[in-house]
């Protein structure tokens, strides 16, 4: 396995330690499984959609949580309580196991909506850049301090 040495970046970039830890976490994806399968779509310049195939789960079985810049989607099936009768499968191809999937969100990316329909969980994301973070043009000869008073 190839490793990336980020030490030259630490010499010239100040305050980007979070970026380095995100790269390290992305390169160590051993804890993430491939279940459930998902797509990430770009819907517009600042709009995204995560579509996750979670057949057999209802909206009560799924939890969506955002903390800092981390989106966690987890699903837990309740224990089968069908009068102690066990179902016998000749073939079981639909997995109904519990899962947890984490996504790292970029700065200013917010969850706008979530919907579960036909076994597909759709999570709409939007990047909302605050006005003070957007580029602005400065007029030459004007004092920025005069406008604030």
Automatic annotation (TrEMBL):
Residues 29-143 form the SHSP domain. It holds the Pfam family HSP20. CDD domains: ACD_IbpA-B_like (cd06470). Keywords: Stress response. The keyword Nucleus does not apply. InterPro entries: A-crystallin/Hsp20_dom, ACD_IbpA/B, HSP20-like_chaperone. Belongs to the small heat shock protein (HSP20) family. This is Molecular chaperone IbpA.
């Amino acid at each position: 396995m190839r490793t990336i040495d980020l030490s030259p970046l630490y010499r010239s970039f100040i305050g980007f330690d979070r970026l380095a830890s995100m790269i390290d976490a992305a390169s160590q994806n051993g804890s993430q499984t491939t279940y459930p399968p998902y797509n990430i779509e770009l819907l517009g310049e600042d709009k995204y959609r995560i579509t996750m195939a979670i057949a057999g789960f209802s909206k009560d079985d799924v939890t969506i949580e955002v903390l800092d810049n981390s989106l966690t989607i987890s699903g837990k099936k309740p224990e089968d309580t069908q009068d102690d009768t066990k179902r016998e499968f000749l073939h079981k191809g639909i997995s109904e196991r519990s899962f947890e999937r984490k996504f790292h969100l970029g700065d200013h990316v917010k969850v706008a909506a979530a919907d579960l329909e036909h076994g597909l969980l759709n999570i709409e994301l939007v990047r909302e850049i605050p006005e003070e973070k957007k580029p602005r043009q400065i007029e030459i000869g004007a004092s920025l301090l005069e406008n604030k008073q």
